[in-house]
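Teaching assistant here, posting this on the class forum so everyone can see the example we discussed in section. The complex has two components, and the goal was to see what a joint structure prediction looks like when all of them are supplied at once.
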Amino acid sequence: MDTVKLKINGIEVEAPQGSTILEAARLAHIDIPTLCYLKDINAIGACRVCVCEVKGARSYAAACVYPVTEGMEVFTNTPKIRAARKKTIELILSTHRRECLSCVRSGNCELQKLAQEYGCDEHRYETTIKTPDIVDVNDVLIRDNSKCVLCRRCVAACKYNQGVAVIGANERGYETHIAPAFDMPLAQAACISCGQCITVCPTGALRERDDTDKVWKALGDPTKHVVVGTAPSVRAQIGEEFGYPMGTNTEGKMTAALRRLGFDGVFDVDTAADFTIMEEGTEFINRFTKGGKLPLITSCSPGWIKYCELYYPEFIDNLSTCKSPQQMFGALMKTYYAEKKGIDPKDLVVVTVMPCTAKKFEVKRPEMEVDGLRDIDVTITTREFARMVRQAGIMFQNLPDDETFDPMFGIASGAAHIFGATGGVMEAALRTVAEVVTGKPLEKLDFDDVRGTSGVKEAVYKVGDHTVRVAVASGTANAKKVLESVKSGEKHYDFIEIMACPGGCVNGGGQPQVHASIRNNVDVRAERAKALYSEDAGMTLRKSHENPIVAEVYDNYLHCKPGEGRAHHLLHTTYTKRSKYPVSK
Amino acid sequence: MAKKKTVVPFNGTKEQEVQLAAVIEKYKDVQGALMPVLQEAQQIYGYLPIEVQIMIAEGLGVSLSEVYGVVTFYAQFSLNPKGQYPISVCMGTACYVKGSQAILDRIQRKLGIEVGGVTPDGRFSLDATRCIGACGLAPVFTIGDDVYGKLTPEEAEAVLAKYE
């Protein structure tokens, strides 16, 4: 690779040709502050926080976009530069609705951090809060443009990672604001509710719709029996909210915290994920061997489901009819659990903790109920769960590590744990499908080709006498690539796993927010997924069909095989074609 | 100036749709096709309502949000059709000094629309223009091809009655 030599703050640096000042500075272990910059998707030099002095240049250079050249001399930390950055931040603050005392991002806000680091006077300029009227609230998330700094990170994530582009910069100059076309509410736009915009927002301008009040209310009602289930990736990420390094599995403390919040049952949605594999695996075998619609596409990710319904309705028949693990969990709680416990399901409140904002949409889908009982009553994100733990005064770090889920619905296979990462559902399904089809135990349980954070992964596996062609995509922009290649006839797959969020649930829209300064330098998706794969590797129960709860429920409650009778009634669903536009042309 | 959505119902014709489809076809594989397509679409329809923007988004494979972002960025694009009687109030220096802002305000109040808007019945649209070169008549405004000068706001309002 060709390199150039330059000096940054007097330090000699050799950087690859085409690097930006920002990238070269990192090689010299110099951190240049950024706000709008997001690696790979948003290098636009808009916010001017990363300005530097370049010897001989007429004006300050934005380090995130300015390419380095041979012999260049850069200064990142002169009094002039510090003053320029400070002024820029103060100007951004002048239009920012500063309710920092109670803002959901307080303490975790990138703008607040910069303002503090640069000793900014937040009242330097007369405050003129822009467009305070644009507050878009729906069941999933809240857009509050009075806290928007116009960095366009959300726009970039929506367009490049998700291939959706439902929000963009409207108007120009001082009137510029981020919104869907025609300033329509997001609920009317073709938004898939994935929440990737929230994960990249530096401030509180984008946040989940907080549903913790509903949970508190249920917990405070003595007539209600309130149970909770957590998704695979929550145990791997909740620790980040309490100071643990990325990828730390805090399952013990997490279950302890849930019990201390007052839940009457603390269960594992991973157990339901094992049911998903039984149902989806059966569905795959049926379609594959009996000439059903292929490729079968997974249905665990509600963001992906909404994307399919909006953008690729021609693939609706390819979707597995299985409900997501969350919805299976709810359906089994309201039936199996209620019956076992002798509780009237009407007095049972089922709460889930999810890495996901699209789950808030999913729980409200009209089809997500059985015999008049809603599967799930409330779903909260990992972030909201952390908020509840803090409000309750629970000292998370001091909680015991050895608490576990309640055993009645708390045993899960390693296959279910890896559901939280891209490729995990495919691997879990393959473990079961292969053993069911061949009737022999697998020699090797790791399906390495479908692991890792690549946006699109492909593999071909021998299952008995059959050849199964699989693909895995995460991030709906990658899903689009896979679906287009299937549509054009270029590719042929039998089984496709799609997760809406890049990297899967570990990087979901409801997960702890990671500052761009970290996101730009660490592969968050890979670090977080490690916790799931290492848990799976250390287990003896690694296949869904060996889960004793699965056997118990099918044999003694559902009285049927997967995919049949009551199992089908409780655990499957339907999909709806949706219009992308509020008007027909 | 914030661009306001049109309140006039869309009544594009089949011919217009065929013309637009041909334009989209012509530019489909061209880098940066959105600008020329929008310009020609505005030629065809006179403005760019949501129905037209959806056709362009679908035709070029870009999102509606991206189309709308470009439309609202450039002053040359309009979300509103021109009225049967387009009103232009000159905001050039001479007219401004002679009080054209008061005329503009008066007409806005009278018609209940903002600059760039159109009345729901499609009769009047309102624009603020730069100098039209009739400074001797300042303050000047035009309705269609008719030019009105040296009027007070009250007199200007009275002129509108002629067109109703």
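For the discussion questions: Chain A touches chain B through 22 residues (CB under 8 Å). Chain A has three domains: 3-77, 92-208, 213-571. Think about how each of these relates to the inputs above.
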